[in-house]
Amino acid sequence: MPLIYYVSCSIILFFIGLYCLIMKRNMIRLLMGLEIMMNAVNLNFIAFSSRAAEGAVHPLAHVFAILSISIGGCVIALGLVLTIYAYRHYGTLDVRELRRLRR
Amino acid sequence: MLTRLLGIMIMSTLSTPLIGLIGKRIKREKLLVTVFAVSIILCIFAIVLTSLLGIIKSHQYYVFMEDLSLPERPIFKADLISTFMAATSSGICFLALLFSARIIPEVKVTAYFSVFLGILTSIFGIVSSEDFFTLYIFWEAMCICSYTLVSFNKVRSETIEAGYKYLIMSSSGAIIILFALSFLYGLTGTLNFQILSQSLSQARGNPLVHLAVLMLLVGFGLQAGVVPFHTWLPDALCAAPSAASAFLSACVEKMGLYCLLKIFFVIFNSFYDEWRIPIAVFAVLSMFVGNFSALLQDDLKRLFAYSTIANTGYILVGVAVGTSKALAGSIFHILNHAIVTALLFLCVGAFISQTRTRSLRKLAGIRHTMPWTSLAFLIGVLSLATFPFLNIFWSELLIITSSWETGMIWLSFLMIINLMFSAAYSLRVVQAIAVKGTTYISRKAREAPLSMITPIFILAIAIIFIGVYPSLLQSLSEKIVNSSLRVTS
After folding, report:
1. Measured between alpha carbons, how far is B240 from B8 in angstroms, rounded to an integer?
2. R_g (Cα) of chain B, nearest Å
3. Among B134, B112, B114, B115, residue whose Cα is nearest residue B125
């Protein structure tokens, strides 16, 4: 398949994640949106790596993708920790409720 | 010199778990852990300062693993700008830790110092990396440590909320950076700064490159607090412990500006001319929004957070003008604002620890009961108000005159208007602290302990010293621009 399919797929995924970040109100869903965007970028890297050399894949992109997956795991873990604490404080996962409860 | 910088990174990475280990073994030995961490940071600061002086004297930079035939390799490089930023950050970090030695609760002391050291290490990584791969990893490490630092005081709901907001915004910014990097990688097949800049100068007119520059501007500008993306900054700086907000506002936020400088004057310097006007628009927006929001603010930490946004705008004015004089002004202003904002947040921290409030109205007249802290605080606020012969005056003068000389008169005019606003709110703070009578809260306050006064006074003396004798650091920042950045015009 040509490269443009993969790249357009990753762009569509990126915008789905962005939509999720902007429109959704649930704290866990926002983290999911981040995860979708991250995966879109990783797909983009992997797709471009096949083009760099004839008949082979470029190692840089693969290393980058693996590292960015692990970094993404760290970020999401921290986000879930904060979500748990927020739930303990407010008893809800709605982002709008957090703003309303602030004094 | 570079091996020294890398050695520091290894040293602080190793000492981060070591601090945790010591803290776990020796229960309730807060003093020991504090002394250990503070002395490590002091060592780091001394080493970085000596290597900065060495680089200034020898006029050369140091590269680790530079081999352009292997573009995949990570490269570390210590030139003047990176050592300068590293020295600034480690100095501020030392003072912030010294300040917070007395006030952090005992159970959290190891986590606190580990997170600080983690941020400092990643800052060293960011400033010394010479390819996007390494830079991105250290960038994310810095961001993760900062989220922890913002939501450190987890019993209060405000901090959790601010930390979550910071996490969502800043990591979406990091993902936008990553997306831009994937396009740059697709276009050129490398992420090395040098090779990237060579091959991009032939790819002029490609819309994808401009898209990538826009995404990098958004992603790094988000960390720097540039205006449409600034909303996390006041919340995060309010919620963090005071020493942490001093460190975040003085160093972490400046890393975004450092990366923008690196992007526009090292990597994309052939595209810089098309991006002058957008940067100027961002700068003007940041100045106006920051200053207007700070104008009627009662919460002192929020006020200084907004003034941080406005000062980001001033630095971006220098970037938008883009002559070597203006860039020297920007770099000088990065140092000056780091010192001033660290001083102000530390003073507010001292007020909070003595009176449990940060409302300007309740703190009125506090100079009667906390004379020394208030004296240093007033020096900082006057410097923020562009008082002549204090440090910020000189860097702002440099930026304004250089933008005037380049013909961007409207930009310098807008900046002068903004300086008037900042003088207005600074004088409001001065009036409340020094002129008004005491309230029932400020009457009961006691002077802060010596471990808090010492770092505050070191910063205040630095402000006065730079203000009286600016030519030393001014010539240093001109040297930095000439040696480390590629100025086209």
Report:
1. 27
2. 21
3. B134
Do A38 and B178 make contact, defined as CB atoms within 8 angstroms? yes
Residue B340: partners with Cβ closer than 8 Å, 6 or more residues away: B380, B383, B384, B391, B392, B463
Q: Which chain A residues are closer than 8 Å to B142 by Cβ? A: none
Residue A81 contacts by C-beta under 8 Å, 6 or more apart in sequence?
none
Q: Give the CA distances from residue A34 to residues A23, A76, B142, B319, in Å, rounded to whole numbers and listed in that order.
A: 13, 8, 18, 31
Mutual angle of helices A59-90 and A27-52, in 10-degree steps:
180
Task: Quote the longest CA-to-CA distance of chain B.
Answer: 70
Helical H segments across B189-299, by residue range: 193-201, 207-224, 232-239, 242-247, 253-262, 276-295
Task: Please give the distance of CA B391 from its chain centroid, rounded to a whole number.
Answer: 16
DSSP notation for B367-378: GGTSHHHHHHHH
Tell if the CB–CB gap between A21 and B133 is shorter than 8 Å.
Answer: no
Question: Do B251 and B92 contact (CB within 8 A), yes or no?
Answer: yes
For B433-472, the pLDDT digits (tens) are 888 888 888 888 888 888 889 999 999 999 999 999 999 8
Shortest CA distance to B146 belongs to which of B221, B227, B239, B220?
Answer: B239
What is the rounded distance in angstroms from the CA atom of residue B92 to the CA atom of residue B163? 22
Does the reported pTM lie above 0.80? yes
Which chain A residue shows the shortest CA-CA distance from B135? Answer: A64
3-state secondary structure of A42: helix
CA dihedral B89, B91, B97, B98 (to 10 degrees): -170
Decide if B270 contacts B210 (C-beta within 8 A): no
What ipTM does this complex have?
0.94
Q: How many CB pairs under 8 A join A and B?
A: 92
H or E segment to which residue B64 belongs: strand B62-64
CATH number listed for the domain at residues A3-101: 1.10.287.3510
